[in-house]
């Protein structure tokens, strides 16, 4: 032993031993049990540490390769399981401090790019040291070393983030770990000055740079996912925690206060301030201004740091008495921004747009912090501090307005915050604000428009509340009338601003609105004389007109309670507007012009202004006439107005007397030549005329028709060009490209008024436009949905989706006609020459399809004089009958139209548009046309051989889906007027059997399954219609059965004798048809009462041959199935339906169970088939985990099979099936998601199994389940065995048990709960088992506790559940796992509260600890972060917080005895709350919850909490209790006061 010891030791120490041998010997000594050295591990660690230290101290000379191997050896030793086990056993092993110094020096060299060798091993060593408590003491005992390590790691991380290389996880994992260690040490430091010095000297700059680079990096797929999604966020949070704890400790506040408060504020300073004061603010400013990073990013780093530091400062020190200190900190931090130089007009040219954006964003964050924390108290600032804050903000506003940055959203937001702080800040510069931020602002991007509108909305609200709205708009009108290049101006009031204006106008006194209207009219009046030939004046007039229009359209209407002076003043204003603005403008426009003058911009704008004001005046005047009895229209006073119906639709004398008709016609002709606001206003005037006529007792139909025709024809030329742009809804923003959209919007929005008075040709034109637009925009629908503006595509789509379209029967019919025409156009050119094709016959132009609609109501088109005799069918009905026979003939002769792939794609687009029609509300004739269209596509077309099979199947599936939707309509049975039911079924099936030849290689793809489902659903609907209609049921079904029987499996296509032509696709279709028919008949017979003997006898007689034929088809199909192959999925529903039919038939025949004759009620051949099928399914079930559809079908069959225990073959019973299910659940591809997908089917099987099994079989099943919960399964890493047992127990709990079975289960329930608790304890040691084992255990435990409400009487058995809850992990989980675990724990707790309240009281400490773990986890996950991360993740946290709130309310409401623990619950809550800053939304839920517990607290509890809580926690409790008294308790007392 001694020889071995001395030999190894001497060889390691000897200079003669080669280093390769030393390393081999050291490795051998570490791993070998034969090498016995006293304190071997410590000796080897000391040897490698000493060697490395000596090398780096220049005492040894080693080759690079040896050094690399030494680092690798040290890394392997530190991370070895042997070392970890020794440390766990209590053995003391240490490292020397010098190795930490060496590691730091190596990282320092790597930072300076001198030497990157061995960096990976060095990082790995540092990770191992920090993660092992007994080794990490070399850093934690000397905090300087840890600070140095953290600084170097941060610098390395910054270098990696700044490079274009992919980011790996090693460095950031170690950095995260180092931050954790340092934050622990930092909290233990007792000298705040020392911590401040450490942070500012070594960590401040690298941490700020690191945070900036983590925030701004453009992450790529090559970057490590864990770093991108988790570590980057965590490290940013750790940086914030470090800076807050290092720079802004409570003990440092006196230093900040002494430094920040000016000399003139001695009363604000604390007595007994420290003599040796730091200058913390000056230190921070110096560090920020020094060049600690590249000049290119120094500005952005400082900008992001300034807002962060101010936030942390406020979080630490913001109290009412400290607001002045907080303000002065703001000014000092603002001085660090480059913006501060602009106040002295220095450095303006040095800021690029990107710099402006960064600086303004930082300023916005600073100002928001001031606003949200109420730093600026206007009264206090004015009275106590000589308006020091007000002066600062005024200078800030002046600087912002003198350096307008309208392209940057943050500029608008800064001004908005300043306005929110105090409107007097911007009052001296209001004119500049209106000009630069509103009227003259060049804002084109949507991202800048939103903050601009938010700023203007704040101005509206502010001046509205101040009742100074006229003052604001005086400035607006002044700016509008300024000399400027108005062509560059955007509309003064956009659609969004108009909405905000409306909200303010509804709150304003009417006289203030009338003041503004009066001002606008006067301004317009002043501009009109200068408009002619002046583009500038015409544009200004248009701006004023648009504002006047906005005010008159959005103010509150006059009504009968409006004061008379207000009504009179409005009358006078409208009269003035008519006489002094509108009439002079019309006089200006009526003057004759040369052709070349008519295109002048000034004339266009003058025309727009005139027509806009005319329309505005007419609309407002009409509304006031209707709503206010005191109002007298100026037009009525003038007299001489013609009646509304006698004049032409565009005759101005109808609305504004005094304007000659001939004069108006010239104005109208001029306005119609401009595709702009004026033309749109003419259409609006015509529509207004129609409304006025319709309001009269006798409407002039001819005038209505003329007005409607004028509106439609007005936009025809623009619509036919096909060029349009989205429109924002602003009537003043209409130009050549937005006019078609505005016209379309006007027509579609008013179709209910227009439709009765436009010709059928115009209706058809509207339908054509609808269809063309939908075809063009279907592919762009998802992209355009996100835009707020109106487009023609959106308008058409919204009409198609509206509930009004089916009510517009003429348009509905016309659209279907357009659709059929479009289908016909897609057909191949060769097919279009054939007049016999159904689609071409349906799209013939000489047929009127509107007869059904025009019969009861007259339309604008005169009906044909040569009316059909009453009994003779119309041409349209004759055509429908002819088309129906043509479809059947073509299907029978197998003469389909061959479609290319492009044509199939076009058909799919049209079918998608067809699905937008409300197919269930079509009129009978339209329903038949649509049915013929779809039937023709199914039966008379076929895709070419080169066409994609998947596309072909999708085409057929879509046709069948629409056919099913059509069959659900109220007029679906009308198709039987032109068809026999059996003929339709034959045509459909014949065409599909023929087409199926090309689908033999697609039977395994999902599209084929979807196709079969659609065919089956359509057949089922159709057969149900036949049965429920009760007309020629027997005849139709017998013909169909006869047809199916002729398609025997031993023939090829329908009538071919060649077996080689047969294919499995056709076989599945045929079997599907039998199955569907059998299912419909069986279901119908089961639902019929016994009294209806005649109809049931007919169908029963028909069912027997169907069952026989179906049985033969199944048997043949199974014979043709290749041995050792899986069962075809299509066969399983068929066999299940056959079994159901047999069982139903047996019940109707009065079958009684006979123990002597097993299955005597079934044919022996059928019993043999079912047993064979059952055995095959049980064989395939365990290996079918990846085939979801097969699993669902197989389990449904087993549920039916197991309902008849007599069917079990041989000695098999329910235990056999449970064993097979257990094997399925333990399969390799079974996941939680798969189990959830088949849970319904599994439950059905288990219900049937347990309901029909004997007590002995049930005992065997229970033994099987309990074996699955044994611990040896977990120890042998058979997690799937455990999961299957848990799943089956959960399913068993959903079954109704009685008698001995129920007793047996609940007798075993304590054993189950104990096993679940033990399994949880083991599973929680491996996070990968969280979702697969822990979550199912929680769900099962909750179900067990709910079901055992009156059975589990022993409190100890229920209390076992707490051992599960206290073991479950709630931290370091993915958000999905966290949500599931949280919900599971909450569900168990809720089950105890609801079902076992006595247990909750007896085991209150365990209950409260379990619940407190949920509260603490929500606080950790819901803490406020700089970057909130994924919205979906935050929704999960909010959901969990809401559940915590509910649980608090349940605890408070359920048990009065819980008042004993209320103080303890509150103490737990505030202790956790003190550790984090919660997100406001999360805090709201938690606070509302804890208020319910505070309701239980008595005064003695409050005193106890105030006395016993630690200092920091006590402050948190006081704030909580004050809010409780102020908000919750007062509200509660108010509610109780009015409660009976």
Key attributes of the depicted protein:
single chain, 1540 residues, mainly alpha, two-stranded parallel ribbon, 71 helices, 2 strands, 0% strand, globular, disordered N terminus, disordered C terminus
In brief, what are we looking at here?
The protein has 1540 residues and is an all-alpha fold.
Structure description:
By secondary structure, this protein is mostly helical. The protein is built from 71 helices and 2 strands. The protein has a two-stranded parallel ribbon with strand order 1-2. The model is unreliable at 1-5, 266-276, 640-650, 855-868, 1049-1059, 1151-1158 and 1534-1540 (pLDDT under 50).
Helix-strand makeup class: mainly alpha
- Order of adjacent strands in the largest pleated sheet: 1-2
How many strand units?
2
Strand content: under 5%
Determine the N-to-C terminus distance.
92 Å
Task: List low-confidence stretches.
Answer: 1-5, 266-276, 640-650, 855-868, 1049-1059, 1151-1158, 1534-1540
- What general outline do the C-alpha atoms trace? globular
Provide the helix percentage.
Answer: 55-70%
The mean pLDDT is 83
Count of alpha/pi helices: 71
- Major sheet size, sense and barrel closure: 2 strands, parallel
Q: Radius of gyration from the CA trace?
A: 42 Å
């Amino acid at each position: 032993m001694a020889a071995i010891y001395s030999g190894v030791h001497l060889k390691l120490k000897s200079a003669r031993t080669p280093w390769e041998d030393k390393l081999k010997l050291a490795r051998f000594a570490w791993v070998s049990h034969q090498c016995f050295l006293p304190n071997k591990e410590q000796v080897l660690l000391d040897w490698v540490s000493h060697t490395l230290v000596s090398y780096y101290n220049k005492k040894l000379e080693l080759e690079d390769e040896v050094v690399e191997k030494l680092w690798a050896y040290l890394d392997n030793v530190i991370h070895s399981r042997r070392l970890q086990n020794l440390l766990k056993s209590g053995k003391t092993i240490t490292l020397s401090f010098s190795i930490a110094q060496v590691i730091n020096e190596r990282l320092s060299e790597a930072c300076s790019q001198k030497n990157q060798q061995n960096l990976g091993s060095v990082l790995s060593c540092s990770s191992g040291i920090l993660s092992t408590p007994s080794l990490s003491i070399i850093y934690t005992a000397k905090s300087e070393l840890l600070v140095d390590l953290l600084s170097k790691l941060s610098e390395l991380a910054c270098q990696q983030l700044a490079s274009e290389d992919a980011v790996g996880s090693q460095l950031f994992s170690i950095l995260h770990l180092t931050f954790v260690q340092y934050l622990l040490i930092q909290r233990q430091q007792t000298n705040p000055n020392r911590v401040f010095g450490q942070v500012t000297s070594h960590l401040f700059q690298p941490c700020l740079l690191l945070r900036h680079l983590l925030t701004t990096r453009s992450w790529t797929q090559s970057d490590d996912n864990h770093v991108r999604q988790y570590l980057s966020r965590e490290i940013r949070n750790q940086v914030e925690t470090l800076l807050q704890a290092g720079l802004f400790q409570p003990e440092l506040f006196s230093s900040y206060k002494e430094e920040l408060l000016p000399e003139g504020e001695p009363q604000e300073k604390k007595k007994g301030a420290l003599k040796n004061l730091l200058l913390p603010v000056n230190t921070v400013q110096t560090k920020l201004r020094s060049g600690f990073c590249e000049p290119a990013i120094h500005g952005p780093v400082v900008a992001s740091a300034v807002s962060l530091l101010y936030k942390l400062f406020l979080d630490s020190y913001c109290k009412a008495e400290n607001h002045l200190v907080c303000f002065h900190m703001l000014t000092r931090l603002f001085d660090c921004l480059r913006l501060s130089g602009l106040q002295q007009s220095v450095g303006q040219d040095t800021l690029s747009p990107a710099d402006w954006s960064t600086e303004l964003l930082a300023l916005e964050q600073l100002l928001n912090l001031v606003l949200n924390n109420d730093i600026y108290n206007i009264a206090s600032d004015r009275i106590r501090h000589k308006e020091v804050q007000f002066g600062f903000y005024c200078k800030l506003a002046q600087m912002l307005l003198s350096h307008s940055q309208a392209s940057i959203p943050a500029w608008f937001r800064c001004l908005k915050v300043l306005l929110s702080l105090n409107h007097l800040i911007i009052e001296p510069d209001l004119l500049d604000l209106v000009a630069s931020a509103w009227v003259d602002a060049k804002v084109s991007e949507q991202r800048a428009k939103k903050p601009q509108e938010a700023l203007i909305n704040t101005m509206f609200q502010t001046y509205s509340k101040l009742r100074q709205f006229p003052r604001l708009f005086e400035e607006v009108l002044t700016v509008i009338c300024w000399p400027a290049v108005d062509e560059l101006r955007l509309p003064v009031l956009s659609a969004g601003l108009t909405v905000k204006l409306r909200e303010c106008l509804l709150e304003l006194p009417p006289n203030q609105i009338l003041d503004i209207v009066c001002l606008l009219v006067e301004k317009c009046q002043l501009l009109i004389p200068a408009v002619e030939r002046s583009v500038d004046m015409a544009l200004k007039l248009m701006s004023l007109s648009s504002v006047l229009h906005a005010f008159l359209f959005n103010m509150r209407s006059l009504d009968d309670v409006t004061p008379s002076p207000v009504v009179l003043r409005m009358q006078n204003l409208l009269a003035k507007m008519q006489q002094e603005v509108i009439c002079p403008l019309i006089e200006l426009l009526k003057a004759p012009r040369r052709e070349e003058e008519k295109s002048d911009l000034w004339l266009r704008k003058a025309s727009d202004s005139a027509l806009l004001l005319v329309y505005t005046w007419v609309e407002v005047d009409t509304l006031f006439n209707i709503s206010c009895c005191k109002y007298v229209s100026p037009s009525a006073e003038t007299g001489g107005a013609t009646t509304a119906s006698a004049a032409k639709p565009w005759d101005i004398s109808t609305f504004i007397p005094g304007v000659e008709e001939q004069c108006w016609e010239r104005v109208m002709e001029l306005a119609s030549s401009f595709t702009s606001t004026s033309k749109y206003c003419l259409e609006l005037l015509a529509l207004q005329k129609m409304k006025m006529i319709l309001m009269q007792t006798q409407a002039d139909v001819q005038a209505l028709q003329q007005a409607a025709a004028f509106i439609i024809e007005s936009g025809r030329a623009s619509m036919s060009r096909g060029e349009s742009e989205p429109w924002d809804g602003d009537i003043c923003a209409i130009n050549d490209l937005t006019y078609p959209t505005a016209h379309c919007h006007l027509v579609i929005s008013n179709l209910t008024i227009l439709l009765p008075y436009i010709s059928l040709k115009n209706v058809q034109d509207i339908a054509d436009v609808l269809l063309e637009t939908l075809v063009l925009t279907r592919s762009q629908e998802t992209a355009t949905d996100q835009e707020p503006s109106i487009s023609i595509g959106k308008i058409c789509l919204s009409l198609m989706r509206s509930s009004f379209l089916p009510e517009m029967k003429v348009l509905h019919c016309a659209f279907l006609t357009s659709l059929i025409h479009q289908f016909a156009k897609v057909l191949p050119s060769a097919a279009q020459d054939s007049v016999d094709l159904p689609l071409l016959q349906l799209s013939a132009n000489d047929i009127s399809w509107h007869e059904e609609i025009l019969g009861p109501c007259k339309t604008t088109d005169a009906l044909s004089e040569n009316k059909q005799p009453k009994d003779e069918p119309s041409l349209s009905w004759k055509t429908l009958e002819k088309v129906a026979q043509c479809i059947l003939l073509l299907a029978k002769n197998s003469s389909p139209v061959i479609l290319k792939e492009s044509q199939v794609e076009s058909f799919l687009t049209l079918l998608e548009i067809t699905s937008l029609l409300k197919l269930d509300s079509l009129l009978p004739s339209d329903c038949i046309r649509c049915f013929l269209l779809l039937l023709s596509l199914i039966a008379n077309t076929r895709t070419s051989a080169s066409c994609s099979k998947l596309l072909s199947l999708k085409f057929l599936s879509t046709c069948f889906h629409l056919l099913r939707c059509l069959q659900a309509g109220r007029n679906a049975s009308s198709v039987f007027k032109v068809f026999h039911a059996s003929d339709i079924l034959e045509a459909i099936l014949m065409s599909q059997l023929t087409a199926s030849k090309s689908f033999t290689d697609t039977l395994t793809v999902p599209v084929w399954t979807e196709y079969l489902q659609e065919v089956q659903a359509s057949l089922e609907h159709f057969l149900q219609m036949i049965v429920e209609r009760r007309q020629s049921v027997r005849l139709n079904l017998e013909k169909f059965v006869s047809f199916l029987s002729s398609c025997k499996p031993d023939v090829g296509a329908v009538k071919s004798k060649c077996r080689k032509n047969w294919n499995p696709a056709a076989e599945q279709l045929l079997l599907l048809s039998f199955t569907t028919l059998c299912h419909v008949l069986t279901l119908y017979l089961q639902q019929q009462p016994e009294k209806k003997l005649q109809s049931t006898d007919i169908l029963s007689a028909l069912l027997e041959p169907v069952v026989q034929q179906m049985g033969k088809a199944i048997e043949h199909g199974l014979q043709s199935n290749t041995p050792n192959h899986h069962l075809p999925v299509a066969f399983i529903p068929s066999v299940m339906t056959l079994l159901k039919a047999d069982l139903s038939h047996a019940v109707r025949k009065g079958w009684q169970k006979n123990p002597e004759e097993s299955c005597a009620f079934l044919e022996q051949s059928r019993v043999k088939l079912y047993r064979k099928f059952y055995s095959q399914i049980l064989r395939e079930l365990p290996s079918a985990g990846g085939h979801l559809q097969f699993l669902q079908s197989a389990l449904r069959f087993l549920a039916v099979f197991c309902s008849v225990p007599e069917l079990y073959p041989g000695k098999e019973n329910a235990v056999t099936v449970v064993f097979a299910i257990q094997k399925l659940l333990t399969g390799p591809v079974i996941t939680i998601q798969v189990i959830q997908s088949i849970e319904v089917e599994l439950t059905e099987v288990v219900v049937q199994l347990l309901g029909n099994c004997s007590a002995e079989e049930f005992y065997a099943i229970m033994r099987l389940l309990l074996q699955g919960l044994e611990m040896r399964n977990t120890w042998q890493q058979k997690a799937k065995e455990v999961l299957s047992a848990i799943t089956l127990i959960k399913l068993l709990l959903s079954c109704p048990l009685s008698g001995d079975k129920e007793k047996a289960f609940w007798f075993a329930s304590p054993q189950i709960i104990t096993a679940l608790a033990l399994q949880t304890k083991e599973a929680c040691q491996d996070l990968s088992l969280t979702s697969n084992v822990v979550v199912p255990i929680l769900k099962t435990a909750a179900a067990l506790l709910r079901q055992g409400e009156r059975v589990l009487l022993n409190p100890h058995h229920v209390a076992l559940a707490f051992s599960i809850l206290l073991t479950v992990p709630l931290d370091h989980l993915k958000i999905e796992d966290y949500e599931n675990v949280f919900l599971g724990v909450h569900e168990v707790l809720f089950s105890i509260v609801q079902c076992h309240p006595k247990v909750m009281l007896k085991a209150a400490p365990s209950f409260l600890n379990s619940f407190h773990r949920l509260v603490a986890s929500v606080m950790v996950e819901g803490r406020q972060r700089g970057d909130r991360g994924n919205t979906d993740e935050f929704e999960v946290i909010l959901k969990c917080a809401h559940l915590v709130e509910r649980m608090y309310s349940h605890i408070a409401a359920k048990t009065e005895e819980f008042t004993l623990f209320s103080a303890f619950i509150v103490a737990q809550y505030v202790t956790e709350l003190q550790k984090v800053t919660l997100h406001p939304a999360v805090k709201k839920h938690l606070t509302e919850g804890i208020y319910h517990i505070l309701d239980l607290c008595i005064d003695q509890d409050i005193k106890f909490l105030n006395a016993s809580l630690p200092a920091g926690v006590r402050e948190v409790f006081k704030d909580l209790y004050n809010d409780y008294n102020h908000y919750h308790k007062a509200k509660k007392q108010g509610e109780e006061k009015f409660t009976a």
